[in-house]
UniProtKB/TrEMBL annotation:
One Pfam match: STAS
Protein's organism: Sediminibacillus albus
PROSITE patterns associated with the record: PAC (PS50113), PAS (PS50112), STAS (PS50801)
CDD domains for the chain: PAS, STAS_RsbR_RsbS_like
STAS domain ranges (all copies): 144-254
SUPFAM superfamilies with a match to the protein in the record: PYP-like sensor domain (PAS domain) (SSF55785), SpoIIaa-like (SSF52091)
GO biological process entries: regulation of DNA-templated transcription
PANTHER family, A to Z: BLUE-LIGHT PHOTORECEPTOR (PTHR33745:SF8), RSBT ANTAGONIST PROTEIN RSBS-RELATED (PTHR33745)
Domain of life: Bacteria
Name this polypeptide is given: PAS domain S-box-containing protein
Regions that span the bilayer: none
Domain PAS: 27-81
Amino acid sequence: MGSFNSDSSLEENQAYKQIIERLVESIIVHSDYIIVYINQSGADLLGENKEDLIGRHLLDFIRDDFHEQVKALVDQVMNGDAPAETSEQVIKRPDGTTIDVEVNCNKVDFAGTRAVQSVFRDITDRKETEKSLETVLKEINELASPVVPILEGIAVLPLIGSIETERAQQFLDHIPAKVAELNIQWLILDFSGIINLDTYVADYLFKINETIRLLGIQTIITGMRPDLAQVATQLGIKFNIKTFGSVPQALHFIGVRG
């Protein structure tokens, strides 16, 4: 357990106190969730004066949906011998704004009282960057799998490249709505550009097929290469969908001539 007691007390050791005060990280020491010490960075993070924060309840500054997580974290620190794992939480400031933070907690002795030292780091910019990347990836996945109308009532979904689980989930999220907008009766799933096929991807494709069928749209698979067919057989994947070697063959089956 760390100590703020006796010679190393924040109140008595001015040199140590100055170091803590100058840290960029926000440091809050709390006992039974009551704030007993906070450095200037911490006060800036919470958006109030240091003096006004002493004696306040820590959870007043944590967004409600993170309260149980914080309680579990504090309980883990107080009843364990090692620091808790880093967690992500959201600070709720008096002005209503929120700040995404990363938190590390340690058990300390503050003036003879068992307490928790929490070190908060503002990760708002990082979270915004992550959200932006997620949006970009989502848009890329949508562009990489366009539903292409080719004739009245018929569209093709060309599946191209390596399809990972996340991308397959994007298909499930967006393709049914897209085909419903197009008012089609037939959707051709063209496998000729797929690099990989595994049970996870096959499961998502099966779910897409079932969802589309519930919309009254018939599906056909084309372009199932021998290597993909062999993998499907080895994995025990069964597509209960009409299958053809090429898009023209599928169109001929639908009744398109010429």
